[in-house]
Write a structure and sequence with these properties.
Elements (H helix, E strand, L loop, with lengths): L1 H6 L3 H15 L6 E4 L4 H13 L3 E6 L6 H10 L4 E3 L5 H8 L8 H7 L7 E3 L8 H6 L3 E4 L7 E3 L6 H6 L5 E4 L7 H10 L26 H7 L1 H25 L8 H10 L9 H10 L1
Parallel strand pairs: 1-2, 1-4, 2-3, 4-7
Antiparallel strand pairs: 5-6, 5-7
Helix pairs in contact: 2-3, 3-9, 5-11, 11-12
Length: about 290
Amino acid sequence: MEQMMMSGLTELEYRIKKAIDRLQAFEPEEGYYLAFSGGKDSQCIYHLAVEAGVKFDAHYNLTTVDPPELVNFIRKQYPNVSINYPKTSMWRLIEKKGLPTRMRRYCCQILKEGGGEGRICVTGVRWAESRKRKTNRRAFEILGKTNADKVLFNDNDEGRQLFENCQMKGKRIINPIIDWSDENVWSYIKNRNIKYCGLYDEGHKRLGCIGCPLSSNMADELEKWPKYKEMYKKAIERFLVGYLERCKKRNAEPFLTDPDKWFEWWVNGKTDDWTEEQIEGQEKFGAN
């Protein structure tokens, strides 16, 4: 912030300049791979990349449990964004792997985090989103095949040379708004008169997958989009067929046998005969 005061810039102007500097520092000849979600953060990195004058192609990974309003918004407002369709749907994944939980979010890796291998990727990750991200994420990153292969360094770190010269097949990642607050994000959007998805005005804080176990409004989301609620229930029924057969062969007691009770536990964290809190219950099921 001392640099901001010395330069005579407002906080927003300082944040914008710093983000643009980050984008311009490592612009590859083929352009950036910009990970786009349609949410406020990815809108910021998209428009900042335009302002920076860097070459990029933006990609949206459709998960099959995306809010319809969000998908329509992206198609209308960002026609240049490539929509990547998954090889399998969330419903088939549940049938095979069971329901995703807070401790077992296999769906993100399969449905959302693909693409950009071997390229320099731009994401809208921000420290303000969670304590974990402030600990584990930096402005510049090199991501190998596993998290153990990740290399992190800051803007002034000598390790930036490693980023620039890295020949790894893994992703090199730039998070240009890593240090932006929520206020910075909304100030930028309003300052630039950028249209955003109307779901925010309806009270949604995040525009992720419908039924995401990390959402604080999971039950409300499933009530808002009842067709998705029914598809989740049908996927649970298909999963239970194989799950109960495996339990029988192993002579193991199943966690729950009724699909409605399973759904109730997944959404509310408890049923009539299961009273643990959501995250504890989900941790236990994920561990088992």
